[in-house]
Write a structure and sequence with these properties.
The structure is a homodimer. Chain A is of the alpha+beta class. Chain A folds into three domains: 180 residues, Aldehyde Oxidoreductase, domain 3 (Alpha-Beta Complex); 316 residues, 2-Layer Sandwich (Aldehyde Oxidoreductase, domain 4), CATH 3.30.365.10; 142 residues, Aldehyde Oxidoreductase, domain 4 (2-Layer Sandwich), CATH 3.30.365.10. Chain A is 29% helix and 24% strand. Chain A has a seven-stranded mixed sheet with strand order 3-7-1-14-11-12-13, sandwiched between helices. In chain A, α14 packs parallel to α15. At the A-B interface, α1, α6, β21, β22 and α15 of A face α1, α6, β21, β22 and α15 of B.
Chain lengths: 801, 801
């Protein structure tokens, strides 16, 4: 392939101007004639039967136009059809504080707000289930009647290789418990949707969704309106991070209220409601038992995870699998057993958040590896390099690894941060930590069935030289529109800013499954490349004929098709389009991408995990711990990321930095926590998301491995880097003060307690090592003991060095 | 082909709801944030040099944001690249009263209006040229320096067959002069455009244009902005009729003002300005010399036309050719000579109006035929039937006739109106008249070059069952969106209302040349059919495979693909889409239409006239003339129209009725007339367009001939029916009072004069038979004499009957 003319260059993002100038129109910026304003009445109870729901007083309130309640949309809805367990609005029963119960449309927001208090709703409370432990008890009420045992939503048990033999052959064993606290996405833009049901019986909804296609499907079901009559338009997104990839009550309600009133209806959540909408990071209790040989080679891993899923399923099936599936792709593991349990509790449903399901186990694994390195006296960076899963291999759970750049990431990090030279050598209170991680480039296995493309795209060329790309991707700030424009521009030899991108519109663009699981660059990128390449062939043919120059000597770039050997010989892009159009007719081509067969296991439950390609990352964190106040300051996070090829290097760096920032927030302060079912911090004043001023210096290192199946070699870039940041910080804190924090977040409170400067009430003892889980209690006690573990092993390593 | 499931049915128009409920957003309904309001300063002079143009005082006026003048857009622009003679705003010279000289953008309309008077403009007047006669004089100033002789814009001289021999063999000769007065489109919606130049350097213009593609091309030229950076969106049109098929000053000005101010700019013309924008029906002076045998067979025709084109070219080349080209397609003419001259005058430019160029000569020809029938004592209906050009033939000027339903039209009319029984038999003051006509289904010959498609379309199917059609056609109220939806629905077996139509958008849809010359159903319809048919094949394949039923037994209709032999055997459309998508990937196909080669003459100047198919019409008008007041009342117009196949019968009837209404207005009262260059009636108060209350009873008869090349057999339906109405009324007036009106409109004034009840000052003598045209004066005098011609021939016919 000739040199790339667009990809890999530091070009401006094609759609940044609108955001920079404030002219981007978010859903809440839309105002349609005769528009009504909607508001959701939400449950005040964590768990209760609805004994009365009378909207008559509210309906009579001047300015109220319509009210809908649960029974108006009786179908269950949700992202994964096989496990749908919620309705658009609660019917008969509420399962968390904040669950939507009714929706009001009124002439203005104030009126809708006033009318909320006029809805007569009465509850008969049920005992709320609020912890994983309680959810596992058989003697408490079921949140969902269809749960087969206790309040378990899903159990996964998978085993690969000979675990017993593995453990038997180990020279050294570790058995650690970890707890990862739940947290939420906290997007700057709160959720908003405008629905308009028009006189032609067609419904349009503009909403900041990450998954227009899935929403489309669920709207059909809930509203009883054929999909051909529904158009979903994904508006510019002021942050998604997975939090806008479920279909939401306000979306259904806005649509139904518009259908009822024949007027457009807007519903924008307020900040408190965004916390109830949630679908964020699951709290996960984890245990990892790992055997290693004296040389550090892993012999077996048994990983157990208990996920606190909140009141509904969301993507919970996928989350449960993900906690186990990707543990194997970074380091050689010859035997692996995974047990995962997701439970229901009476809290807002958890769902996917950046790093979906893999963040928590990666934290556990990388912290444990750090312990093993200490135990065995290895340099943690070198140790990881020694046990890497190789490129072009299969993991024990049958995942196909193509390109694999974690070794390069570690090398680059080492060179940049001098990790190995500094680790264990810094004064007390200063520390440096390292961790690796991996992520998928989209989920590879069937969403519908094997044969269905995951992404489709069409590309159209006009005789005026215009290029339009249509692809159902949702631009959620991650840069997908820029990616689509750049890939098309590269194929066709134009500039990205020449390309008109039509995305996130179910009527205008072919289906793309959505912006989740870091699938867009890989899958939609491949679809656009597929379409654009067909047109490229026609353009090259036309130019070859016109110039009488062999096709293989021609290259399209900078709006010309030029003879590689003689830059004076060229046809302009516009002329080539005109020539090709005369020959072929309208220049439009379709492209698709479906992942290849055979990229993952054939076993039951292999549906989540297999991806056509994996990204790899490693981070080094540098921290300072104030030994008097317990305050941990992260001074710098350096992250190296194998993204295959950086189609837009500046954008990849932005993703790495954004991920690192988010990981930093998760480990240092964020927590979605409850008291008796009530969210303790449903505001950005209390929820400890870092501001830009809190954020450490972030450094991004791009590692390219040119994946054979990625579009121009690209893989995932948006999620993976978060995963390595969190354990790197935890490991750095250990390096600074010799204390392991096997639970997140690492607050000053906990640090002080660990340093013996105060009691350990900051450590919720009951969370580490649950009762009722066999050998859990002992392990929990062990985990608690390790909090006061001193630096014996650290001394050992120094001696080895 | 199996029975059609959509086409030919009386289904609701898919896009009518928006117009019916008022929710359609016309260009003037658009309001963008920070939008400015523009206004054009127009010339007060018919012909002058601009000696001073100082905008400084206006620019200083509070609220004025920018002003642009002619030199800011120095490129010549216009619809036909070869003869462009105007600039977006006048430079140095003005050529008609109302010509745009400068454009102001201000914070509101009032401010822009105020600022107009603050622009200091001084003119040095030149003698205005206001008549065809003056335009032909060599001694008067040239309006355009590049005119080679006098103020002649274009001369066309074409001769086919042996004219002299034809005339020599004639038994009877007629040599008649006619004058067709100019008139204008008078759309309900005045022209409006909103332009927005955005931060990404891209310009979007929403405008009620009929020709988004041509406007796109001219904007590139005038603004110096690549077409790939310009998006033209044709807004719903409140009437076009040809009057919105030029690129207009306000469109260029709105764009440039937006580029200068970085704010959206709206310019909406007021009603007076719409009269200056014009581009309407040319006043044409005509002479037809026709030889006939005793049996009525035509032996030769010599047709001469002088077109008063106003100040600029517009579509004038086409108009000039059209006055001659289509004379031959209705009746056998073995020898034909055509001389056409279009001149410049200092009046608003004339252009295309419904029936473009063919309306005036058709009036002349059909009135003359009526005279010949009278002369020879023939029934005018039977006479026409006897001399019909046959189907599947070539005319003397080499036009290819495919289907030809004029005979059927005449038959149906005769049966319906009892024309032959009633003509000549009604009491004095009552009359019945008949005329035939024809029109093109789009111009067949190259706009760019032979190989270029005239229409392109893409069709996309979604796994949700959605169908989207993309086609650059402009929906101007003629029903093109409905046509696109219906053709796609027929091909795919869905309902028109299931289809999402994306039209009139140069970024979203493939190129269609525009909504003019009745080309859309034929050309865009064929393009959509081409695209949709490819998808139909895939769907049929998938269904055949699934059902194990041979493909040829399957038919798609009503969202199912069904076994013709057993309606219980079917695959739903949605399922077929899913199956086909799994097999082929994204379901999107492109289609194109370019007219076939060899449909017209190879001679120079054959560029206008040849069409892939011709529509045919005939009208019978019934009139009452008040012999005291001279008032002519048209009681009823019945029009039969051969549209090939009526894809949407109700829409075709609407077009026939609309055409008849418009023709009625043109013959009975409308005139775009001037006094010293000043428009005499630039308001709907004075311009005599009929209201719905004035309108006679209109009856439409659809005649189907199933053209072999039309989409599902369809041909033109929007323009042709106007042409036969006008001469039918004139012929009916003759039948009522025995007076020929060889000029339009037929006003009460003229009728009274003709009846001898007042002097003939209503008849502008100088217009019939121009000085300076050889034998013109004599003929003119003859024409004037014929005004007092009594019913000698009429008596003769009666004797024959």
């Amino acid at each position: 392939m000739a040199e790339l003319s667009v990809l890999g260059k530091r070009l401006p993002k094609v759609n940044s101007w609108a955001h920079l100038t404030g002219s981007a129109k978010y859903a809440d910026d839309l105002f349609l004639p005769r528009m009504l304003y909607g508001r959701l009445l939400r449950s005040t109870q964590a768990h209760a039967r609805i004994t009365k729901l009378d909207v008559s007083r509210a309906l009579a309130h001047p300015g109220v136009v319509a009210i809908v309640t649960g029974p108006d949309m009786p179908e269950t809805i949700g992202i994964m059809p096989s496990v749908q367990d919620e309705t658009a609005l609660a019917i008969d029963r509420v399962r968390y504080v904040g669950e939507p119960v009714a929706a009001i449309a009124a002439i203005d927001e104030d009126t809708a707000f006033e009318a909320m208090s006029l809805i007569d709703v009465e509850y008969d409370p049920l005992p709320p289930i609020l912890t994983i432990e309680d959810a596992l008890r058989e003697d408490l009420p079921k949140i969902h009647e269809k749960s087969r045992r206790a309040n378990i939503f899903k159990e996964v048990h998978l085993s690969f290789g000979d675990l017993d033999a593995g453990f038997a052959s180990a020279d050294h064993m570790r058995d650690d418990w970890f707890f990862f606290e739940g947290n939420t996405h906290a997007p700057i833009e709160s959720h908003s949707a405008v629905a308009s049901f028009e006189g032609d019986g067609k419904l349009t909804i503009w909403t900041c969704t990450q998954v227009p296609h899935y929403l489309h499907r669920e709207l059909e079901k809930a509203l009883g309106l054929p999909r051909a009559k529904i158009r979903v338009v994904a508006t510019p997104s002021g942050g998604g991070f997975g939090g806008k990839s479920d279909p939401f009550a306000h979306e259904f309600a806005a649509c139904l209220l518009s259908m009822r009133t024949k007027r457009p209806v807007k519903i924008t959540l307020d900040r408190e409601e965004v916390f109830y909408a949630h679908r964020g990071r699951h709290p996960v209790k984890m245990r990892i038992k790992t055997g290693v040989k004296q040389d550090g080679e892993i012999t077996a891993v048994h990983f157990q995870s208990w996920l606190d899923g909140g009141a509904y399923s969301s993507y919970g099936i996928a989350t449960t699998y993900y906690t186990g599936a990707l543990m194997t792709v970074t380091y050689r593991i010859p035997a692996y057993k995974f047990d995962g349990v997701r439970v229901y509790t009476n809290k807002p449903p958890c769902g996917p958040k950046r790093g979906h399901g893999t963040t928590q186990p990666r934290y556990a694994l990388e912290c444990q590896l750090d312990k093993i390195a200490v135990d065995l006296g290895f340099d943690a960076l070198e140790y990881r390099k020694r046990i890497l899963q190789p490129a072009n291999s299969r993991t024990v759970n049958e995942l196909r690894i193509t390109s694999m750049g974690l070794g390069q990431c570690l090398d680059e990090l080492g060179a940049k941060t001098k990790y190995s030279e500094r680790h264990g050598q810094l004064p007390r209170g200063k520390g440096v930590g390292i961790a690796g991680s991996a992520y998928i480039s989209g989920a590879g296995l069937p969403i519908y069935w094997n044969e269905m493309p995951h992404s489709g795209a069409t590309v159209k060329l006009d005789r005026g030289g215009g290029v339009t790309v249509y692809c159902g991707t949702a631009e959620i700030g991650q840069g997908s529109d820029n990616m689509l424009a750049s890939v098309a521009a590269e194929c066709l030899g134009v500039r990205p800013e020449d390309v008109h991108v039509v995305s996130g519109d179910t009527s205008l663009a072919p289906v793309d499954l959505g912006s989740y699981s870091s699938r867009v660059t890989f899958m939609a990128g491949n679809a656009v490349k597929d379409a654009a390449w067909k047109l490229r062939e026609w353009l090259l043919d036309a130019a070859s004929e016109r110039l009488a120059i062999p096709r293989e000597c021609l290259v399209p770039a900078d709006r010309r098709i030029t003879d590689l050997r003689d830059p004076e010989q060229f046809v302009t892009f516009d002329d080539a389009v005109v020539l090709a159009e005369a020959k072929h007719g309208t220049l439009s081509a379709a492209g698709s991408y479906r992942p290849p067969q055979g990229i993952g296991g054939g076993y039951k439950g292999a549906g989540v995990g297999p991806s056509p390609a994996y990204s790899f990352q490693a981070s080094v964190a540098e921290v300072s711990v104030d030994l008097e106040t317990g305050v941990v300051t992260v001074d710098r996070i350096t992250t190296a990321h194998d993204c295959g090829r950086a189609l837009s290097p500046a954008n990849v760096e932005g993703q790495i930095e954004g991920s690192a920032y988010m990981g930093y927030g998760e480990i240092m302060g964020e927590e979605q926590v409850f008291r008796g079912g009530l969210h303790k911090k449903p505001s950005l004043l209390d929820y400890k998301i870092p501001t830009s001023l809190d954020t450490p210096e972030l450094e991004a290192i791009i590692v390219e491995t040119i994946d054979k199946e990625g579009p121009f070699g690209a893989k995932e870039a948006g999620e993976g880097p978060l995963n390595s940041v969190i354990p790197a910080i935890a490991n750095a804190v250990y390096d600074a003060i010799g204390v392991r924090f096997d639970e997140t977040p690492i607050t000053a409170d906990k640090v002080l307690a660990a340093l013996g400067k105060r009691d350990n009430r900051g450590m919720p003892k009951d969370r580490i090592g649950p009762e009722g889980m066999g050998d859990g209690q002992e392990a929990a006690n062990a985990a608690l003991r390790r909090l006061s573990f001193t630096t014996e092993a650290r001394e050992k390593k120094k001696a080895n060095a």
